[in-house]
Specification:
This protein is an alpha+beta fold. It is built from four helices and seven strands, in the order H-E-E-H-H-E-E-H-E-E-E. It has a five-stranded mixed beta barrel with strand order 1-2-4-6-5. Strand 6 and strand 7 form a beta hairpin. The radius of gyration is 18 Å and the shape is globular. The protein starts with a helix and ends in a 16-residue tail after the last strand. This is DUF6152 family protein. Pfam families: DUF6152 (PF19649). It comes from Neorhizobium phenanthreniclasticum. InterPro entries: DUF6152.
Length: 164
């Protein structure tokens, strides 16, 4: 009887929980169009399944040292060099919401700390296929540390395939 009551209470507690938004895999981002952006973080939502940061892009062009970004070895093994060859600057003064990897992956991949408003973030990212101003980075740089965001080979373009 006690188990039945506990099960009912547990079920009731779960029914009142807020629904979790589904996250999008790499297929929901235009992997044929990598962009470079760098600017100040204006907001942070540090939660799972994917933290989000909003960045006001201050870069209007690729800086002379853009290809000297600190690229983690694991990202290089996934063919990131080809991504770097295709990268184009995002327009300046645009705000971009970046969908980051889950927090546990960020920690395992060397994220130096949780970003905060005012921090400068640099990213190589792929714009959303359907949402203006939303992108998923393959690489972010915070405090001079390159943190990969990609752990799988990317599907081509806007495939819609739930990956990553």
């Amino acid at each position: 009887m006690k188990m039945r009551i506990l099960a009912m209470l547990f079920g009731a507690a779960l029914s009142g929980a807020l629904p979790v938004e589904a996250h999008h895999g790499w297929g929901y981002y235009d992997t044929t169009r990598p962009i470079y952006l760098s600017g100040r973080v204006t907001s942070v939502s540090w939660r799972n399944p994917h933290p989000e940061i909003t960045v006001e892009n201050e870069a209007g062009a690729l800086p002379s040292t853009w290809d000297a970004l600190p690229v983690p070895e694991e990202l290089a093994e996934l063919g990131f060099e080809a991504t770097l060859r295709r990268v184009q600057p995002a327009a300046p003064a645009e705000r971009w919401t970046l969908d980051l990897a889950p927090i546990n992956r960020l920690e395992a991949w060397g994220m130096p700390r949780e970003p905060k408003a005012g921090d400068v973030i640099t990213a190589i990212a792929f714009p959303s296929c359907s949402e203006e101003g939303v992108a998923r980075p393959a690489l972010i740089v915070l405090d001079g540390v390159g943190v990969r965001q990609q752990s799988v080979a990317l599907p081509a373009g806007c495939s819609g395939d739930p990956r990553g």
